[in-house]
Amino acid sequence: MSSRPTRRDIILSSAVATTSLAFAEELFAQGQLAPTPACGADSAPTLSQTEGPYFKTRSPERQSLIESGVAGRRLELTGFVLTRSCKPVAKALVDFWQADANGAYDNAGFRLRGHQFTDADGRYRLSTIIPARYPGRTPHIHVKVQAPSRPVLTTQLYFPGESANENDRLFRSELLIRMAQGGGAAAGQFDFVLDMA
User: What are phi and psi of 138, to 5 degrees?
Assistant: First the structure.
């Protein structure tokens, strides 16, 4: 049985992503989802965290991790890659990987893994799902961010309101995604601040 997506899968995935993205943009426009630029004169770069045991190189370049067979609550995650002085970082590599809705990582393939490059305004957009917790860990998304020819920032993003946050020894509130909910969709926002002037 082929694991390649069918034309129907692609159309359905595209429709879901478009609907979720429209929802996220509406929340931003209404001011219900505030931006998170943690940059400025006294700012510190985004906290780094361990990459953990499940990172894989050569992930596919894509903005949507939603594909045939991926279950879970949809999440549209958006944000910027910025310098400490709030300048956008264009063409920054942003590489995501995460567990699925059952708390499992795909270590054989690239399900729920992918990278992209920020646009001229330093913006990224990711269509994915909210990952499940697994023993010892609260739900989180792993990320590597790298400006062209600069060191890599490796970190993890967390979700507000998760009861497992308080028992996860790696959890840091500074890495919480700002979330807005609506119907069956969720929109999140997080800006990465790199150690650059």
Answer: -80, 160
Residues counted in the chain: 197
Beta strand 74-82 with 192-193: parallel, antiparallel or unpaired? Answer: parallel
Query: Domain spans of the chain?
Result: 7-193
The three-state secondary structure class of 33 is coil
* Mean pLDDT for the stretch of residues 35-63: 88
- DSSP one-letter string for 85-105: T--B-TT-EEEEEE--TTS--
Contact between 146 and 154 (Cβ < 8 Å): no
Q: Cα separations (Å) of 54 from 18, 68, 110?
A: 29, 22, 11
Q: Which two tokens stand for residue 93?
A: 């590599």
Is the pLDDT confidence value at 163 over 60? Answer: yes
The residue written with tokens 């426009």 in the block is: 29
Largest CA distance in the chain: 56
Of 3.30.420.40, 3.10.450.50, 2.60.130.10, 1.50.10.20, the CATH number of 7-193 is 2.60.130.10
163 DSSP 8-state letter: G
**Mean pLDDT value across residues 136-152:** 98
Q: What is the pLDDT of residues 73-95, one digit of tens each?
A: 999 999 999 999 999 999 999 99
Q: How far is the C-alpha of 119 from the C-alpha of 141, rounded, in Å? A: 21
CA distance 177 to 155: 13
